[in-house]
Amino acid sequence: MCVPLTTAFSLSLTQQQTSPLWQQQFTFHLLLNLGRLLSYTLVGAEIGALGSVLIAGGQMVGMVVGYARELQF
Known about the structure:
Elements: H1 3-16, H2 22-72
């Protein structure tokens, strides 16, 4: 998924400069991968939070049904 982005940014970097220094290439790839990891971490945390809310909601429904059954008898 990230390969096209990396390739596009790498090609744009080489077009601007004939031979970028290894420090510039290192900084570029470091920032690109840190951004990728941060975005994946945030998306994973959001999906995990949504899943925990759904599980907690299902447990609450189960408790309400159990209490309702006890009150009927």
